[in-house]
Amino acid sequence: MRHHVILGAGPAGVIAAETIRRHAPQDRITLVGDEPHPPYSRMAIPYLLVGHIDEDGTHLRKRPGHYDGLRIERVQGRALQVDTQRRTVRLQDGRALAFDRLLIATGSQPVKPPIHGVELPGVHHCWTLADARAILQRAGPGARVLQLGAGFIGCIIMEALKQRGVQLTVVEMGDRMVPRMMGPAAGGMIQRWCERQGVRVLTGTRIEAIEHEAPLRARLSNGEHIAADLVIIAAGVRPAIAFLEGSGIRCLQGVLTDERMQTNVEGIFAAGDCAEAFDRASGRTIVSAIQPNAAEQARVAALNMVGRSAELRGVTQINVLDTLGLISTSFGQWQGVPGGECAQWVDEAHHRVISLAFDGDRLIGSNTVGWTDHVGALRGLVEGQVRLGRWKEALRRDPTQFMAAYLATAQAQAAWCGPGDTRRRGDAPVR
Predict the structure, then answer these.
(1) Average model confidence (pLDDT) for the chain?
(2) pLDDT tens readout for residues 26-74
(3) Are residues 88 and 99 in the same domain?
């Protein structure tokens, strides 16, 4: 009987524990989380802020006794050190957990920028249930809220705050909103949309200091001073892997894994937002902090932990964002590659953008704003590494024709390539 220790009680940790139990009924499973609550989804917190759910609604598994019924032992604690020689994990309270197989699924942690006053009461991240409770106390209708960060997570928080009826100012250091997901045209379009909805957005701006307490007073890099009842820090996240320093487990941006989600140390695996896995489409290792990746990585890791062979097929690079009713998407290497070509279509009057990035005759990435019809075809072209042939020039002239390109190339190639035939063709005629 093996002992599987799972560090992290988020979606990846829970899915891994359930998968192990399904395939190894007699093995011991210990799930370690650093919060006192049952495992919950951070992505559900905005719905809690709006009032669509209560705290129980954030829980990943809602059936009473779910973990006890599966004989998954839950331990509250924070990992401080992994000893790969002794095969133990030391927790903050001094306990040591011995393991046969270890899964690192500690996820991400919010970045705390070096701002004077960031520890003052009324300054919060929006990351935990404790953060949500504090925000609910201060973010009533008419409250003055200053938010640092207009990235993917920041936009989700902004949506919830706006629905609570606050007076919202958003400060973003980048030159546009969602700069790590959207190019200039798309990010600028989202900013103009938000401003029309009553949100003040200041790009290219930093909070330099937070002073006083009632109300808070923030000094900005543009010289302004803004009074606020609440300041929210949404300045990005990073993999929560500092405790692995000195362990011998290889880390780059995240915990480096192979196609089995195993690290460089036999019997130690990683999954979810802290894992760095190989992406076949881009040819490099990446950390892709989205839940579908976390779920698949957890499944693959768990199967290998119990001796069943499984491989990760790839890392999905996809983001879909609803910003105050404006839908945007980002697939693949939307920012392009050196020597590649780009095409763009903008409809300012209807708040729509399509941006495409090519490498040779393959579409490698895209941005869309305000365009919801058939966007899955863009994902299919990007992830399928489809050769476009003459359709590339058609898309350069008119990016809105991506669905026609998909039908003429991706589906045709699937029909022409029989079992075991990896040839790809892209010479369908342009219509």
Answers:
(1) 93
(2) 999 999 999 999 999 999 999 999 999 999 999 999 999 999 999 999 9
(3) yes
Name the residue with tokens 């998954």.
Answer: 72
Note whether 174 and 154 are same-domain residues: yes
pTM, two decimal places: 0.90
Q: What's residue 158's pLDDT?
A: 95
**Do 241 and 281 form a contact (C-beta atoms < 8 A)?**
no
CATH of the domain at 389: 3.30.390.30
> Looking at the predicted structure, is the pLDDT value of residue 416 above 50?
no
Q: How far is CA 338 from CA 14, 357, 396, in A?
A: 40, 11, 17
DSSP secondary structure letters along 108-171: EEE-----BTTTSTTEE-S-SHHHHHHHHHH--TT-EEEEE--SHHHHHHHHHHHHTT-EEEEE
Cβ distance 339 to 297 under 8 Å?
no
Q: Strand, helix or coil at 399?
A: helix
- What's the rounded Cα separation, in Å, for the pair 89 and 143? 44
Please name the residue that has the structure tokens 């059936």. 63
Phi and psi torsions of 182, nearest 5°: -130, 145
pLDDT at residue 305 in the model:
98
Element containing residue 260 per DSSP (H, E): none
Residue 288 — pLDDT band, cuts 50, 70, 90? Answer: confident
Q: What does the alpha-carbon distance between residue 305 and residue 6 come to, in Å, rounded to a whole number? A: 11
Q: Which domain holds residue 358?
A: 325-416
CA distance 248 to 220: 42
